[in-house]
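User: Hi! I have a protein structure encoded as tokens and I'd like to know what sequence might fold into it. I'm fairly new to this, so please keep things simple.
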């Protein structure tokens, strides 16, 4: 049985491991610095960002969702901020038990409490599981895009 709660500083070590699982390219020091700031409630940028975790009663972390506000998001009403899923991961051996859905519900509840009427998110094209989970949990696709770069 997992418990969904707001992450706090004692979660730093376990949460930084989960974050690296989701974003392996993230620099170790940068990960800890950014995470410490989020867990202390400091703003990263101008809008709020927070993390909900799923944990067992003995404190083991099973997953997390990072949720913030964005001033606008593709496909959403541009006149008001939206809740945005910035990161979402459930430990591989704990998936398909509803934990991802419970984390998302907590993120949505928080976004509602901030006055949001919409929630937005993204997934890379290759991540079919994420797309299936988004669809199953009520998201609709609004756009598919290709990102480019060019050295100047
Ligand atoms: C996306 C993720 C967080 C979902 O977590 P989860 O705990 O497995 O999600 P849930 O158990 O709440 O699943 C909700 C629904 O999504 C769908 N779904 C989830 N995983 C699926 C899979 N592997 N295949 C098909 N459908 C899937 C199902 O409809 C599922 O409901 P069901 O199990 O009753 O059929 C998890 O797969 C994960 O951590 N993936 C790796 C990281 C990642 O890609 N994050 C998203 C970045 S955009």
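Assistant: Happy to help. Inverse folding works backwards from shape to sequence: for each of the 152 positions I chose a residue that suits the local structure. Here it is:
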């Amino acid at each position: 049985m997992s418990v969904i709660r707001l992450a706090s500083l004692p979660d730093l070590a376990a949460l930084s491991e989960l974050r690296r699982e989701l974003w392996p390219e993230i620099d170790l020091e940068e990960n800890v610095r950014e995470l410490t700031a989020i867990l202390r409630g400091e703003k990263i940028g101008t809008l709020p960002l927070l993390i909900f975790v799923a944990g067992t009663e003995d404190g083991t972390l099973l997953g997390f969702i990072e949720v913030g506000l964005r001033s606008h998001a593709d496909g959403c009403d541009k006149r008001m901020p939206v809740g945005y899923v910035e990161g979402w991961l459930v430990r591989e051996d704990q998936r398909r038990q509803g934990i991802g859905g419970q984390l998302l519900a907590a993120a949505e509840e928080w976004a509602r409490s901030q006055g949001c009427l919409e929630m937005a998110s993204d997934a890379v094209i290759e991540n079919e599981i994420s797309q299936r989970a988004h669809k199953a949990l009520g998201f609709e696709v609004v756009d598919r895009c290709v990102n480019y770069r060019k050295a100047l």
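A useful reference point when you look it over: The chain has one domain: 3-122. Feel free to ask if any position seems puzzling.
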